[in-house]
Design a protein that fits this description.
mainly beta, five-stranded mixed sheet
Length: about 375
């Protein structure tokens, strides 16, 4: 989960979404999104949606990247499913049929057209899916996908100086139940002399993404000669975007990756603290809808056992929220809350109920549900 948003109370009305027709012909010249009707709320029954995505040039290919929020009825993909075919009809070669709650990995066409079909039956709807489609960019013939258990990724021409005007994408595709570790061996890119902070390289740079490029989240942008730290990912895709301008060229980089099977022992309960109390989650990662008027009740104070006042919104309503950006996808198994006794009034103050919303991009939010109903946590 990339972000967590917790409204402070639950009393408001439920908005009804008008059902919209689904499907159509889409031009991949500009990137866009396809979602199930009503996403991220439950999709309707009896759906049969078909999309045909076409690239403008015959030599171009199309890439699909799914939001991790993916929920279709299981049951061997017989009743509710999304089907992707490598052509313009449902008789083209099948690239995949998917259901359940595990989002498919990136899907890349072999030609300029993709056919997508979504079907739902009369029962057991879920939140559905959201996917991004765009032209698959290969840069100056320097982009590659890596699927082997281990390997080395190098800048073009390494160990000689890299060429100018490159746009390369290296994508490591990791099978289910495996992690990947990326370790840089050498690193030498044009330095940005005015770089004020990490991530501001403006000339040549290497970006590392926990997912597909521009979809993210972004782990970091690097230049100069400082070797980046070791990077680990368990999200299924780790991407490197390499950009060079038309001026200075350096020796480039080399990095080794290794995939390993996730080790889960019998005592694993997935309950380690994420860092709100210890400070591992920084103040910058915590934001809120508002704070109480005198500046002594800020979002950073929404930590367990904080020595001073806790976060307090400016209004007492169900529209207020506290939000935590976890930077990377993480499994969340519980939330601890804490009230306080006022030093001035000696009264007890605490949140009485809340809903949990999750997002992987800070824009598409999904309310955590218990079965078919939105889960509302009631605190005594």
């Amino acid at each position: 989960m990339g972000n967590i948003s917790t409204p402070s109370a639950e009393n408001g009305p439920v908005n009804q979404l008008k059902e919209e027709p689904c499907g159509g012909h889409l031009d991949a010249s500009d990137a866009g999104y396809i979602t199930t009707p009503g996403y991220p709320l439950e999709y309707p029954p009896h759906q049969n949606c078909r999309w045909v995505i076409t690239a403008p040039e015959p030599s171009q290919r199309i890439v699909l990247n799914f939001n991790p929020h993916f929920e279709l009825e299981k049951l061997d993909c017989r009743y509710d499913f999304i089907e992707i075919r490598d052509g313009n009809s449902d008789s083209a070669d099948l690239l995949g049929r998917h259901c359940s709650n595990i989002a498919p990995p990136a899907i890349i066409s072999s030609g300029p057209v993709l056919h997508i079909k979504f079907v739902s039956d009369y029962a057991h709807q879920g939140a559905g899916f959201s996917l991004r489609y765009e032209i698959y960019k290969t840069g100056s013939d320097c982009s590659r996908n890596f699927t082997s258990p281990s390997g080395v990724i190098e800048s073009p021409g390494f160990p000689d100086k890299y060429p100018h005007n490159l746009e390369c994408t290296f994508i490591i595709i990791v099978p289910p139940h495996m992690d990947v570790t990326l370790t840089f061996l050498t690193f030498d890119l044009e330095n940005d002399p005015l770089q004020g902070s990490e991530g501001e390289c403006k000339y040549d740079w290497l970006e590392v993404w926990d997912g597909l490029p521009q979809v993210g989240p972004l782990i970091g942008r690097h230049c100069g000669t400082k070797i980046p730290s070791e990077i680990q990912s368990s999200t299924g895709i780790l991407s490197l975007s390499f950009h060079t301008d038309m001026a200075v060229a350096k020796d480039g980089f080399s990095a080794r990756y290794n995939m390993t099977l996730k080790e889960v022992n019998d005592n694993f309960h997935c309950s380690n603290a994420l860092g709100m109390e210890t400070g591992k989650i920084s103040d910058d990662q915590i934001s809120a809808s508002s704070s109480f008027y005198d500046g002594r009740w800020s979002p950073r104070q929404a930590r367990l056992n904080f020595e001073d006042n806790a976060w307090t919104p400016n209004e007492d309503s169900n529209k207020e929220y506290i939000q935590v950006d976890l930077h990377f996808l993480k499994v969340l198994t519980g939330i601890a809350t804490q009230g306080a006794v006022s030093k001035e009034t000696h009264k007890t103050y605490f949140v009485t109920s809340f809903k949990l919303e999750v997002s992987t991009n800070g824009e598409d939010w999904m309310i955590y549900r218990y079965g078919k109903n939105h889960k509302i946590s009631i605190l005594d």
